[in-house]
Protein backbone atom coordinates (compact mmCIF):
# COMPACT_ATOMS: atom_id res chain seq x y z
CA UNK A 1 0.00 0.00 0.00
CA UNK A 2 2.86 2.38 0.85
CA UNK A 3 4.47 1.69 -2.52
CA UNK A 4 1.24 2.58 -4.36
CA UNK A 5 0.85 5.85 -2.44
CA UNK A 6 4.45 6.78 -3.14
CA UNK A 7 4.00 6.24 -6.87
CA UNK A 8 0.73 8.21 -6.85
CA UNK A 9 2.40 11.00 -4.92
CA UNK A 10 5.21 11.21 -7.49
CA UNK A 11 2.69 11.34 -10.35
CA UNK A 12 0.76 14.14 -8.62
CA UNK A 13 3.99 16.06 -8.09
CA UNK A 14 4.98 15.63 -11.72
CA UNK A 15 1.48 16.64 -12.84
CA UNK A 16 1.55 19.74 -10.63
CA UNK A 17 4.95 20.72 -12.01
CA UNK A 18 3.70 20.21 -15.57
CA UNK A 19 0.68 22.40 -14.93
CA UNK A 20 2.83 25.14 -13.43
CA UNK A 21 5.23 25.06 -16.36
CA UNK A 22 2.33 25.17 -18.82
CA UNK A 23 0.83 28.18 -17.00
CA UNK A 24 4.06 30.21 -16.99
CA UNK A 25 3.50 31.88 -20.39
CA UNK A 26 0.03 32.98 -19.28
CA UNK A 27 1.42 34.30 -16.02
CA UNK A 28 4.10 36.21 -17.88
CA UNK A 29 1.46 37.85 -20.08
CA UNK A 30 -0.25 39.23 -16.97
CA UNK A 31 2.73 41.49 -16.36
CA UNK A 32 2.65 43.16 -19.78
CA UNK A 33 4.47 46.37 -20.55
CA UNK A 34 2.21 49.42 -20.55
CA UNK A 35 3.58 52.87 -21.17
CA UNK A 36 2.92 56.36 -22.44
CA UNK A 37 4.95 56.30 -25.64
CA UNK A 38 4.61 60.00 -26.54
CA UNK A 39 2.91 63.29 -25.72
CA UNK A 40 2.81 65.70 -28.65
CA UNK A 41 1.15 68.95 -29.61
CA UNK A 42 -1.27 68.45 -32.51
CA UNK A 43 -3.61 70.76 -34.46
CA UNK A 44 -6.64 69.62 -32.49
CA UNK A 45 -5.07 69.33 -29.01
CA UNK A 46 -2.47 67.23 -27.26
CA UNK A 47 -1.92 63.69 -28.56
CA UNK A 48 -1.17 61.16 -25.83
CA UNK A 49 -0.01 57.80 -27.22
CA UNK A 50 -0.24 54.72 -25.02
CA UNK A 51 1.35 51.39 -25.92
CA UNK A 52 1.01 47.88 -24.54
CA UNK A 53 1.94 44.35 -25.58
CA UNK A 54 -1.68 43.28 -26.02
CA UNK A 55 -3.39 44.78 -29.06
CA UNK A 56 -6.21 47.30 -28.59
CA UNK A 57 -8.97 45.37 -30.36
CA UNK A 58 -12.26 45.62 -28.46
CA UNK A 59 -15.22 47.39 -29.99
CA UNK A 60 -16.21 49.23 -26.79
CA UNK A 61 -15.39 52.93 -26.48
CA UNK A 62 -11.72 53.44 -25.52
CA UNK A 63 -11.39 55.92 -22.64
CA UNK A 64 -8.22 57.60 -21.34
CA UNK A 65 -8.29 59.35 -17.98
CA UNK A 66 -5.56 61.60 -16.64
CA UNK A 67 -6.16 61.97 -12.94
CA UNK A 68 -9.72 62.82 -11.89
CA UNK A 69 -10.15 65.89 -14.12
CA UNK A 70 -9.30 64.78 -17.65
CA UNK A 71 -11.05 62.25 -19.90
CA UNK A 72 -10.62 61.63 -23.61
CA UNK A 73 -12.62 59.32 -25.85
CA UNK A 74 -11.15 60.64 -29.10
CA UNK A 75 -8.66 57.99 -30.20
CA UNK A 76 -7.06 56.47 -33.25
CA UNK A 77 -4.34 54.06 -34.23
CA UNK A 78 -1.01 55.50 -35.44
CA UNK A 79 -0.47 55.99 -39.18
CA UNK A 80 1.46 52.71 -39.41
CA UNK A 81 -1.62 50.83 -38.14
CA UNK A 82 0.13 49.36 -35.08
CA UNK A 83 -2.72 48.00 -32.96
CA UNK A 84 -0.52 47.94 -29.84
CA UNK A 85 -0.72 51.75 -29.71
CA UNK A 86 -3.69 54.09 -29.29
CA UNK A 87 -3.37 57.85 -29.64
CA UNK A 88 -5.84 59.93 -27.64
CA UNK A 89 -6.42 63.60 -28.42
CA UNK A 90 -6.93 65.73 -25.33
CA UNK A 91 -8.12 69.33 -25.72
CA UNK A 92 -5.40 71.80 -24.70
CA UNK A 93 -7.62 73.34 -21.99
CA UNK A 94 -8.13 69.93 -20.37
CA UNK A 95 -4.46 69.00 -20.66
CA UNK A 96 -3.57 72.21 -18.81
CA UNK A 97 -5.75 71.01 -15.88
CA UNK A 98 -3.76 67.79 -15.59
CA UNK A 99 -0.91 67.80 -13.09
CA UNK A 100 2.46 66.09 -13.18
CA UNK A 101 2.09 62.79 -11.38
CA UNK A 102 -1.60 62.31 -12.26
CA UNK A 103 -2.24 58.67 -13.12
CA UNK A 104 -2.99 57.80 -16.75
CA UNK A 105 -5.58 55.06 -16.88
CA UNK A 106 -7.26 53.27 -19.76
CA UNK A 107 -10.52 51.33 -19.95
CA UNK A 108 -13.05 50.20 -22.52
CA UNK A 109 -16.29 52.06 -21.79
CA UNK A 110 -16.85 54.77 -19.22
CA UNK A 111 -18.48 52.45 -16.68
CA UNK A 112 -15.98 49.61 -16.89
CA UNK A 113 -14.33 48.45 -13.69
CA UNK A 114 -11.38 46.95 -15.63
CA UNK A 115 -8.84 49.77 -15.51
CA UNK A 116 -5.29 49.59 -16.84
CA UNK A 117 -2.67 51.89 -15.32
CA UNK A 118 -0.18 53.49 -17.70
CA UNK A 119 1.84 55.30 -15.06
CA UNK A 120 2.17 58.91 -13.99
CA UNK A 121 1.87 61.93 -16.26
CA UNK A 122 5.18 63.64 -16.97
CA UNK A 123 4.45 66.92 -18.75
CA UNK A 124 8.17 67.43 -19.41
CA UNK A 125 7.78 64.75 -22.12
CA UNK A 126 5.57 67.05 -24.19
CA UNK A 127 7.01 67.31 -27.75
CA UNK A 128 10.16 65.30 -26.96
Question: What are the main properties of this structure?
Answer:
128 residues, alpha+beta, 2 domains, 8 strands, globular
What secondary-structure arrangement, pairings included, does this model have?
Elements: H1 2-30, E1 34-42, E2 45-52, E3 62-66, E4 70-72, E5 75-76, E6 85-90, H2 92-97, E7 103-108, E8 116-120
Antiparallel strand pairs: 1-2, 2-6, 3-4, 3-7, 5-6, 7-8
| H/E element sequence | HEEEEEEHEE
Count of helices? Answer: 2
**How many structurally independent domains?**
2
Mean pLDDT value: 84
Task: Name the shape in a single word.
Answer: globular
Q: Give the fraction of residues assigned to helices.
A: 25-40%
Report on the structure:
The protein is α+β, with helices and mostly antiparallel strands and 128 residues long. It folds into two domains: 1-30; 34-125. The protein contains two helices and eight strands; from the N terminus they run H-E-E-E-E-E-E-H-E-E. It has helices spanning 2-30, 92-97; strands at 34-42, 45-52, 62-66, 70-72, 75-76, 85-90, 103-108, 116-120. The strands form two sheets. A four-stranded antiparallel beta sheet has the order 1-2-6-5. Strands 4-3-7-8 form a four-stranded antiparallel beta sheet. The protein is globular, with a radius of gyration of 22 Å. The model is unreliable at 15-24 and 26-30 (pLDDT under 50).
